[in-house]
Fold each of these.
Amino acid sequence: MSGNTSSNTGNGMDHAERDSVLHSWCVQDRWNAPTIVGGEGARLFSADGRTILDMSSLAECSNLGHQHPKVVAAIRRQAQELCFVTSAWGARARAQLAAMLLEKSAFESGRVFFTLGGADANEHAVKFARQAAGKAHGWVITRDRSYHGASYAAAALSGDARTAAFADREAFRVLQVPPPYAYRCPFGSASAQDCGTAAAAQVEAVIRAHGAAQVAAVMMEPDAGTNGIVAPDSYWPALREATRVHGVFLVADEVMSGFGRCGEWFAWQRYGRSAQPDLMTLAKGLTGAHAPLGAVVLSAQVARALEPQMLLTGLTYCGHPLCCAAGLAALQAYEDEGLIARSRKLGQEMFQSLLGLAARHPVIGEVRGGHGLFAVIELVRDRASREPLSPWPAMHPALQQLLQEALAAGVSFAARGNLLLLAPPLVIAERELGDALALLDGLLARLSATLTTTADSDRPGAGGARS
Ligand SMILES: Cc1ncc(COP(=O)(O)O)c(C=O)c1O
């Protein structure tokens, strides 16, 4: 162990940390990330005195920016009053937060179960759906190219090529269907809307094939997906209709898409009241990442079914008062600062700017998203054939290089496979957003030049960091 706590790599990486900590979604011996000691708004401050503009809200979770003063103050107040009470007892901040979530989602007479994060929210949603439906071993339908968490059952729910080897779908009773990936439509549809309709029809076909009595739930992201797919507008309403007709619970994974990311409190709200799911899972933006918290929001129907039953689940720190106080202050901040509407407006502007980049850089195959401050840039070798820059989920060295150069220039972008994901904090200043996109413009020009001047080495790397 080096014992050297300062960087000599020029990016703020702490050698002592590299020698002692296992970092998630990283190749350990290539770990080379900055150590962060503070933040404000969309900016992070590194141990070596640099400022980094955060264009991904870290793991698409710091929707309120970093160190939001009202959330920090609420955590401090709660710590002075009461740090912990078991989740089987009552805690004021927890009850207030539940009431506010039910109000914002219009889940009248519903209930909220608090979790530690997104993966266990999704696992609990499946448990509740099965228990409420009386289908203890009922199938759960999810889609390929999805991400629902890294714990064993959540990994089985996910359609993630990188973790497929340990994702035992049969054991967890998971069925997978193709995604509504209109740019490369698995159903061969000519239009995005047709692709969405075909993807929803496929879910219905799987329900029929297995028998509705054997299927407990369908779990999907309603709009933008963490794995870079943005569902066409035709998709979610059709899915809602099909699941309603067959009496199968629909679970919206809003872990990433919630809290303004897609321009609404919850992404499904884009499609109106009739598109309300039966269960909804939350995390990330719930506290704006100021404290670890997730939730399952249950409709009145699901809650009623569970009411007389023993709830054989819960983790010690579920609904921790410190985290619930952070959640309550976070929700208040979204509301007081008009951040949901801001995300919608800035998201559209960001999307227009990205279309401008696409017009200049043929390496951009498609730009999608833009309902809120979330957009995906899909990179291709050839626009006409749509050949991806690297085969999914590998990342081309030139894209890895782009990320490094951006970081060296003080801007952090997220990428996965051949996709660049833009998800800045909803509080980002317009000038900061403009600066980041101007930098990206230059970096894409350089990436294109690299691709054309070097004989393409076909050495895709180790994939991207997970959110
Ligand atoms: C859509 C979605 N669901 C679930 C998760 C898992 O959340 P967590 O990392 O809090 O377990 C994530 C995390 O990236 C996500 O994006």
Note: Residues 1-10, 459-467 have pLDDT under 50 and may be disordered.
Amino acid sequence: MMFSFDYQNIEIKGNFKLAEVCSLGVGNGALFFSEVDSAEKLITALNFAKERALRVFFLGEGSNVLFSDRFFPFFVIKNRIKGVSLNKEGFVEVFSGTSLSEFLNFLEDNELTGYEELSGIPGSVGGAVYGNAGAFGREINNFLSEVLSFTKDGLLKKRKRKDLKFSYRWSSFKENGEFIYKIIFKLNKGKKEEIKKKREEIIEYRKNRLPENPPIVKSAGSFFKNILLPDGKKLAVGAILEKLGAKEMSVGGAAVSKKHANFLINKGNAKAKDFMELARRLKRIVKEKEGFEIEEEVIVLDKFF
Ligand SMILES: Cc1cc2nc3c(=O)[nH]c(=O)nc-3n(C[C@H](O)[C@H](O)[C@H](O)COP(=O)(O)OP(=O)(O)OC[C@H]3O[C@@H](n4cnc5c(N)ncnc54)[C@H](O)[C@@H]3O)c2cc1C
């Protein structure tokens, strides 16, 4: 049973069902859960965690996570710190809980070009920076200038792009466990009509080739990372899986999408263990038939027990 209480003006929920806050729609209860919409509330939540020596997990829009069927012994802090503006020097300042689509709308309205390729990707800007989200050769770090983040002790840090170790689906936030708070970008001036047209083309392309965005289809995007070859080129895992007949595979309520073989979808009542078993089988056939080890792009949260 879920319960809730007040801690210094933030609401904390106990035994909160995580299936409700992720795009795959799976997940058991979290020890504690709270939503924060300001830096002050974030600090309060971090203090609550520190006083009780709780492990903390930061959540954006939940579009890239697979929670466990088991109880999650963490304090999950969901980020709702939002807002985007242009500063005097012409840099765009975005709070991390802003959705990527709101951010891209702002860029279009302000005739700033560079990120049209990211159109249609769900999730928050913070989540995108954490995993260096990308599409069509563009990555969120490309026009990023600086990131302000909070350590779990509530200390504010400011780092430049070059100090954040961005690479394919990687940033230093995957190592340091900090909360991404505000991101500063420098984009180029463009023409509104051209930006709009390119965004529409990308959305149309995605619509024809990928399953619809959640909540229409419950997925977490590409389940596996593409294969990085020694020459730096990438092999599309979706094409390999399709060739191996993966589109016919399912385990319990988890199935490979018929539209794109690197998307695993929840047909209705999937459990995390269904996804993990399906992923295990897919990894095995790719290894056996093609000789490649593939690894999850989705953040799998079943290993902390
Ligand atoms: C239909 C669909 C299509 C997709 N297409 C793409 C695509 O084309 N390219 C692509 O790269 N991804 C894609 N994704 C994956 C996903 O949308 C992105 O990874 C997105 O950037 C995740 O953002 P989020 O807010 O949902 O993160 P979440 O799922 O909430 O979190 C993901 C990780 O980021 C961490 N995190 C989130 N916010 C913060 C923060 N403020 N501070 C510190 N850590 C944080 C979390 O702890 C977690 O480990 C797709 C997903 C779906 C469902």
Note: Residues 149 and 181 are 5 Å apart (CA to CA).
